[in-house]
Design brief:
Blueprint lengths: L2 E5 L5 E5 L4 H10 L7 E4 L5 H12 L3 E5 L2 E5 L7 E2 L1 H4 L9 H8 L1 E5 L12 H9 L4 E4 L2 E5 L6 E4 L8 H11 L5 E5 L5 H12 L3 E5 L2 E5 L8 E3 L4 H13 L3 E5 L7 H10 L1 E6 L2 E6 L8 E3 L11 H9 L4 E5 L8 H8 L3 E5 L2 E5 L8 E3 L3 H13 L3 E5 L2 H6 L3 H6 L4 E5 L1
Parallel strand pairs: 2-15, 3-14, 6-7, 10-11, 18-19, 22-23
Antiparallel strand pairs: 1-23, 1-24, 3-5, 4-5, 7-9, 8-9, 11-13, 12-13, 15-17, 16-17, 19-21, 20-21
Helix pairs in contact: 1-2, 1-7, 4-6, 5-6, 6-7, 8-10, 8-12, 10-12, 11-12
Bound molecules: ligand EPZ.
């Protein structure tokens, strides 16, 4: 299994290009199954999770061809209404094939995703969305099963105990596109990745309107193929902004879309990073004098994203004063805390709140990556730490960060991958 060896202490300087968003690409790949002719996607990141979704699309009968950062998906032979455990357990987002199966094949048997290292991740809201649209859903033998659903117009809310759900909103949207009449989803997720799916479906001929947290879907008879460019990855961009801050560097984040990152940028500015919009991106420079501790609460968009919580933990571990992070989306998503503590961070956890007392230095240590964003947090801490850090199990990083070590090396980081 690959590891990263990082020698910390180098302020990063230069330009980091941002890739297409993983979490926008995955539902859009699944939604391509709804078309009656081929779809071309551009700016698709080269990631293990994208490979997993390609395998899933193959499994259900679609043809998928990759050429550099483009994917051509031909859904005309999509005819398999089953997603097996073996494919879904490797990547939760495979569950996105449920909506297209129900809408187009009028039949679905999709494995429940099972456990996840960042905490409990139920799918009750996905099922609630399908049932609200009139489908009878059975959960049997670890599978979600839908057979000959009689989908009908409906008005319902998808709001759950932690607010809106990205996945349930996407799955319900995809299931509803061919209903005769109008479906109205209240309490829908507003993440840029959900809006990207709405745009993609509309480009294929769907009639979907969004107003605040309400999505209205006017059913159409069919969807056609299209060409679509994936939006930039706001979480990758935020991770490199933190890299500029934590190494006291000066990075230009090329291709990021700042309107998707307002709360993240405002938190970075509070901590002391200068974030200046430049043509085609943002320049991020650390201004030592204004460094200050902050409080963060993760929330659905436009709130602070849970997917940047771990990376900010590393930065706050080296930020003067006492900061807090409260996780409202995944209360158990603190696997990085124990590893950061091994590097000298002072973090205490009580329920879903981490209190972080900034220290002057972190020290390199062998650490273990546990999930995608926790792994990114460890790389960031390692870039700022004194001495050498070995990060084990970096396959988590390969699921969601395109060429991470190459992008970091190009701006001066001493990082190498060893097999
Ligand atoms: C998406 O997961 C992302 N994954 C996650 O990114 C991200 O952390 C998450 O949204 C929150 O922003 C993809 O886009 C592929 P949710 P998803 O449904 O859709 C609860 C990363 O690191 N909930 O919005 O699975 C749930 O437990 C990842 O790239 C229910 O209660 O998240 C959570 O508390 C990891 N019932 C909250 O809603 C349900 O049926 C939000 O989850 C579904 C969710």
């Amino acid at each position: 299994m690959d590891q990263f060896i990082v020698e910390g202490g180098v302020p990063l300087r230069g330009v980091v290009p941002i890739s297409g968003a993983k979490n926008a690409t995955l539902p859009i790949m699944a939604a391509s199954l709804l078309a009656n002719s081929p779809v071309t996607l551009r700016n698709v990141p080269a990631l293990m999770d994208i490979d997993s979704m390609m395998r899933m699309l193959h499994h259900v009968g679609a043809d998928v061809v990759r050429d550099k950062d483009s994917l051509v998906i031909d859904p005309t032979r999509f005819n398999v209404a089953e997603a097996p455990y073996d494919l879904v357990r490797k990547m939760r987002a495979s569950f996105y094939v449920l909506g297209p199966m129900v809408a187009k094949l009028k039949k679905a048997k999709v494995s429940l995703p099972g456990g996840c290292v960042i905490g409990r991740r139920p799918v009750d809201l996905h099922i609630k969305g399908l049932e609200a649209l009139g489908a009878k859903v059975k959960v049997e033998g670890g599978y979600v099963i839908v057979d000959k659903p009689k989908l009908k117009p409906a008005i319902f809310s998808l709001e759950g105990p932690s607010g809106s759900s990205v996945g349930a909103t996407c799955n319900t949207l995809m299931a509803a596109v061919f209903i005769e009449g109008r479906a109205v989803i209240h309490g829908a997720a507003k993440e840029p990745e959900v809006m990207a799916l709405v745009d993609f479906l509309n480009e294929m001929g769907a009639k979907i309107e969004v107003q605040d947290s309400t999505i209205t879907i006017e059913g159409v008879k069919e969807l056609h193929g299209t060409e679509h460019t994936i939006i930039p990855d706001r979480i990758e961009a935020g991770t490199y902004m933190v890299a500029a801050a934590i190494t006291r560097g000066d990075l230009t984040i090329k291709g990021c879309h700042l309107p998707h990152m307002e709360v993240v940028v405002s938190k970075l500015r509070e901590i002391g990073l200068e974030v200046e919009p430049v043509v085609g991106g943002a320049r991020c420079r650390f201004a030592n004098s204004r460094q200050s501790a902050i409080n963060i609460r993760t929330l659905p968009y436009p709130g602070f994203p849970t997917d940047l919580q771990a990376q900010f933990s590393s930065l706050l571990a080296l930020t003067k004063g006492e900061s807090t992070i409260t996780e409202t989306i995944y209360p158990e998503r603190f696997m990085h805390v124990a590893e950061l503590s091994r590097m000298g961070a002072e973090i205490s956890l009580y329920r879903a709140t981490a209190t972080i007392c900034g220290v002057d230095k972190l020290q390199g240590a062998p650490v273990m990556a546990t999930d995608l964003r926790a792994s990114a947090a460890l790389v960031l801490a390692a870039l700022a730490a004194e001495g050498k850090t070995e990060i084990l199990r970096v396959y988590h990083i390969d699921r969601g960060y395109e060429r991470l070590e190459k992008k970091l090396e190009a701006v001066g980081a001493r990082i190498r991958r060893v097999g």
